[in-house]
Request: fold
Amino acid sequence: MYTKIVRQPCLLLRVINVLSLITLIILPVSAQNIDMEEVYARDEFRWGVRSFNSGNFSKAIISFENSLAYKPQNTLTREWLGKAYYRGGFVNTALGIWESIIKEKKATALLQNKYETISAQLGLGKELSEKMHYVISLEITGNKEDYSLFSKPSSVATRADGSFFLVAYGSNEVLQFNANGALQKRLRGGFQVFDHPFDVLDTGEGFLFVSEFEGNRIARCNYDGYITDSFGERGSGDGQLLGPQYMAADGKGYIYVTDWGNRRVCKFDYEGNFILSFGKRNLDFPGFLAPSGILCFREKIFVSDAMRRHIAVFDLSGNFIGILGSEVFHGPEGLAVFDSDEILVADTDRLVSLNIDTELVSVVSDLENSAGKVLKAETDINGNIIAADFDNNGIIFLSEISSIYSGLFVQIDSVYSGNFPNVVLSARVQDRLGSPISGLDASNFIITEGGYSIQDYSFEFTTDDSRYADITVLIENSPRMEKYADQVRQVVLELINDIKSSGSMRMVSAGEIPMLIAGSDSKDREFVSAAVGETSIEKEGKFDQGIRMSVGELISSKNKRAIVFLSSGSLGENAFSEYDLLQTMHYMKNNSVQFYSIYLGSAASSVEELEYLCRETGGKSYHFFEPSGIGTLIDDISLSRNGMYVFTFRSARNPDFGRAYLPLELEVLLLKRSGRDESGYFAPLEF
Reply:
C-alpha cells in the first residue's frame, strides 16, 4: 500500500548509521538487535509532523508514506497521513485511511467522531438538515441571592462577535454579555440616564439606538452607553411618541419604531428627523391595536400586533401589503430574522418561525413550559437562540437538540515549536456542519500535553475579532484576458488601495506553470505591471495549480485568508487537469481560505465552477461593471469569520533533544456542547 520514496539520507540518519556500524564492531552479538526499520520510520514520521505543522502537506504525505513503508501497521502514522491528505484537499482518501483503522478496531473515539463528522459534511447534511426543535441549554436569572443582576428584560440584540445586548426595562440599563453568558459591561446612559429602556438597535454605524418607553424618546448613544443625542417627545403629533417599544433599521439610513401608545409605526432618519408614520385604520388595513415587534426584511416592514395576534406587512413607505399568521399566534411580540425566508417570532410563551413565502408557522420551542412572557428572541452568530423572559426575569439560551448531542468540530491547524519550550498553537472551532464558532475566550478551552493539563497558557487572539486579511490575487492566464488589460489595472489599483490599512497582498499567475509574480513586499507599480503582463498570454493556464500555489502563499497566515480571482468569465479545458473541482474546493475550505471571483467583462456571465467555489468556501462573486463593482470586497473579506483561535504556552515536556514526539490535545466547551482534537509536534533537533 505504501511505497518507499528514496532520497538522500538526512544528517541524523548518517550519524545513526555510523554509530550502528561502530556498535556492530565493538559490541557482542547479543547487543546487536537494533531495529533500523524502526529508526528510519521514526525519522520519516518526524519529518512528516514538522512538514504538516508548517503547512507543507505534500511533503508531509511523502514522509508519512515513507514511514509506513518501513512500519505499515503504525496506527499513529496512518492517522497523521489521513490528516495530511485531508488538509491537502484529498478528503475521500483521508476518509478511506481512517475507515481502515476503524474497521481494524484500532480507532479512538475521537477518530471515529472525526470520521463521522467529515462524512456528514461531505454528504447532504446541510441540504437535508431541517430546523430541529430547540431546547434550553442555559438560563441566567436576574435575581441572585444577595443582589439583582438585572430586572425585567424586554429585549435582546445579538452581535457579530458572539456577544449580545440585553435591555433591562426594570433596572434602567442595557447590559452586554459575551458568548458564554458572562456580563461584560453595563450601559446606563451616562449623565442622562435611561428612562425605562425597552429595545436596543445596533445599525453597525458605530452607535446604538435605545428606545425609552417612559421617556417617550429614542436615545442615541456610543458603545460605552453614553447618550450623545436623543429625539422624540411625549405626544401624538409628527415626531412625538407615547411608549416607544421595538425598533428596526432598513439599511438605507432609516429606523422604524413601534409607537405603542399612538398605535402606529414612526419612521426617522439616523439624525432623528421625522419622516412619516403609518398603521392607522383605512379601507384596506384595520389599524393596529397593540403594535409590538418590528422587522425590516427583504425590502418590507413586518409589524406584529399583540392584540390582533397577527403580523402586518408594509413597504418601506408604510403602504399596507397584507396580513400573515391570522389566528395562529398566542400574542406575537419581538421579531427577528431566522433564515433566508423565515422570521423568528417571540410568541409570549413559545418561539415560532413564520415562513413569509408559504405563511407556514412552525413551533421552534415551547420553552419547556417554563417561560413567563418572552418579549424578544434572536439567533446568535453560533446558531443559538437567546430570549428575554420579562415575567420570569431571565435570559434563556436555546440550542438545536441535534447540535447539543453532535457537539463541536475542533481542528488543530498547526503547532509551531521553533522557539521550544515556547509553543504556538492555532486551531479552528466549527459546528458539526462546518460553520465557524465565534466569540470564545480562554474559559472555553482546555489544553493538555500528553494528558497533563497546561494551566498557564495565553489566549493570544481570535481571527474573527480582527479585520486584518491576507489575500492572494490570482490572475487568469489565457488569451481571453488580453482585452481586459484596462480592467485588470483598475481592479489591482483598487485592491491595493483598499488592503493597505488592513492586511497584505501578493499575486500569482494561473499560467501553464503557476508562479508568484508579486510578493507582499512588492511596490504598487510592480503589482500593476505584473498583473497587466498576464493579459497578453497565448497559451491556456492551469487554474487548479494556480489555486494550489495561492493557498500555499496564505497557509501560514494568522489573519483572514482569501483568494481573489480575476476572470474573463470563462475557464479553459485545462482548468482542472490535475486536481478536480472537489479537491480544489476542499484544499481551500480545509485551510480556511475563502474564494472570491471578479468577472471583468461587461457581458461576462457567471461560471458555475467559480460560483461553486465561492459558495462552498464562504466567499462571493462580483461583476466589475455592475454599479456596486468591487467596492465592498475587502470589507467582505475583513468581516468574514473562520473560527480560528491562537494560543501560546510554555511546554514542560522532555523533548529528548528533539527526538520525542510530544502529543497535544485541545478541548472546547460552549454551553452544553463540546469538541476535541489531538495533534502533536517535535521540538527542534539538538546535536
